[in-house]
Known about the structure:
Two copies of one chain form a homodimer. Chain A is α/β, with parallel strands linked by helices. Chain A has two domains: 4-90 and 293-320, 2-Layer Sandwich (Nucleotidyltransferase, domain 5), CATH 3.30.420; 111-291, Nucleotidyltransferase, domain 5. Chain A has helices spanning 36-39, 41-55, 75-85, 98-106, 148-163, 172-179, 189-205, 215-223, 227-247, 261-267, 294-304, 311-320; strands at residues 4-9, 14-19, 25-31, 64-69, 92-97, 112-117, 121-127, 130-136, 256-259, 287-289. A five-stranded mixed sheet of chain A has the order 3-2-1-4-5, with helices on both faces. In chain A, β4 (64-69), α3 (75-85) and β5 (92-97) form a beta-alpha-beta unit. In chain A, α2 runs parallel beside α3, α5 (148-163) runs antiparallel to α9 (227-247) and α8 (215-223) packs parallel to α10. In chain A, 49% of the residues are buried. The model of chain A is unreliable at 268-282 (pLDDT under 50). The interface between A and B is medium-sized, with 20 and 20 residues. Chains A, B: InterPro entries: ATPase_BadF, ATPase_NBD, Euk-type_GlcNAc_Kinase. Chains A, B: It comes from Microlunatus sagamiharensis.
Amino acid sequence: xxxxxxxxxxxxxxxxxxxxxxxxxxxxxxxxxxxxxxxxxxxxxxxxxxxxxxxxxxxxxxxxxxxxxxxxxxxxxxxxxxxxxxxxxxxxxxxxxxxxxxxxxxxxxxxxxxxxxxxxxxxxxxxxxxxxxxxxxxxxxxxxxxxxxxxxxxxxxxxxxxxxxxxxxxxxxxxxxxxxxxxxxxxxxxxxxxxxxxxxxxxxxxxxxxxxxxxxxxxxxxxxxxxxxxxxxxxxxxxxxxxxxxxxxxxxxxxxxxxxxxxxxxxxxxxxxxxxxxxxxxxxxxxxxxxxxxxxxxxxxxxxxxxxxxxxxxxxxxxxxxxxxxx
Amino acid sequence: xxxxxxxxxxxxxxxxxxxxxxxxxxxxxxxxxxxxxxxxxxxxxxxxxxxxxxxxxxxxxxxxxxxxxxxxxxxxxxxxxxxxxxxxxxxxxxxxxxxxxxxxxxxxxxxxxxxxxxxxxxxxxxxxxxxxxxxxxxxxxxxxxxxxxxxxxxxxxxxxxxxxxxxxxxxxxxxxxxxxxxxxxxxxxxxxxxxxxxxxxxxxxxxxxxxxxxxxxxxxxxxxxxxxxxxxxxxxxxxxxxxxxxxxxxxxxxxxxxxxxxxxxxxxxxxxxxxxxxxxxxxxxxxxxxxxxxxxxxxxxxxxxxxxxxxxxxxxxxxxxxxxxxx
Lengths: 327, 327
């Protein structure tokens, strides 16, 4: 019996599902980072193969694989993946955009909008089951306002300004100094000077994109009522709303599907006390948050075989594809 | 006869002047980058020694050296410099902040403000001949709005947005594509997509701070009337004015001394047609632009010996210390 493989390759992990041509789920798998930009071409291709192997029931093979991934679709990466998946019978590899897989993870509709807010941010308009317009996704250096890097940078800037006496004090100061292992007493001028020096050094000693690791501090402090953190989170939410506005057109209402670590951790799951200020990214339109693009990759795999995925089949897929989330 | 050495160590070049205790200039010298952060500790110390050697008349020595430099004053760098300058008789090395040297390059006054807008930005309040308050200077990753990196990043963002159809067209597009050697025809959709892909790849392939090299394109395009470039330059000028405001206090009026590549190339030397929009950094207070901190390093060297530097002596120093500017 031939099967289908659907894979969602991300910068942290790769997720896979094996299913039959009727959409019945036969197995699930997970492995390490499968994005060639994040992990390198060969390690990423190996991660894709490992996730496929974990998902396929022992002794079975698959004829087609759909791989959802972010960024450029390089021929070199495709060749590495094809070579490895050939061992499982795969003769056809289809690469799809992770934004489309994310959208299809939240709805059976063929049109609407998708927004990813992870370390970076990107939004898309979907029409006729394809991406019609993509905005953002230029990376940390050129934009991606509202993403994890941007939030982490705003957090550090707020802390430096507070230590410097340029801006108001914030609970983020102790949080950030603690997270970076900086020992200094901000109650005294000498301690503040030392804290700034250590903080700036620590930030420049790491990869710039590592600032994204500090983003969760903003959500926690905002939830605890810190006004500085709250302003950062509200500004992030507004930036995401602006990004979504950039792809919206009047003749296409929704739905809106959102995903990514920022969405999962903070902006959409803000405590009720903050919800008035935290403009939802969709500005009034119903929003569905999804953990990843795996359900959508399965939807796309079925559609690539010519099968139709209606609401009922979509709901069965969504119920069956539940990978335990990593810690 | 004992002499004094005054040195201004920057990220691009190191400048030196030898003078006697009456402030008579005996020689000038220039060498390569003398900032340990930019060049490394040993190469920077060697550049300092090379500039000193070039400035000292043959066969003469100096007992004291004042070295103006940006950033942290590390003991390791000081030791390397002391060891090398000992060969020229130097028994006392004084490290001063480049902001103070810049200020003293523009005025004999003991109080006022200094602003550096190069790749990054930093401002200071000077009182009693010392730095009383310093704001900014956190580097490209954490701020420095209005500096060369910031301007270069805004230029690339404007070009990407223009190519993407998100923002208005700008003459910067051809300028940036040309500067980065990108071949694509933005008149067609496929050309725009290719241009964005190449542009983003080129930017991430370089050091982030290399974005500063694109800043001069903004000044040139703004001068030629491009509204997008003009907005970038005006925003930079406003950011510099804000930075200066952050150190200003009512009881200390000025003067204001400014320096750095952004000041030299663009914001303050904007053509008359732009001058209405280009708020001068000092917002109404007289501004003196200086090419570097070498005159100020000489002023500081004399003051460290206990000598007074009044307006007349300052003007003589300024007239005598004229290094040819590198191309």
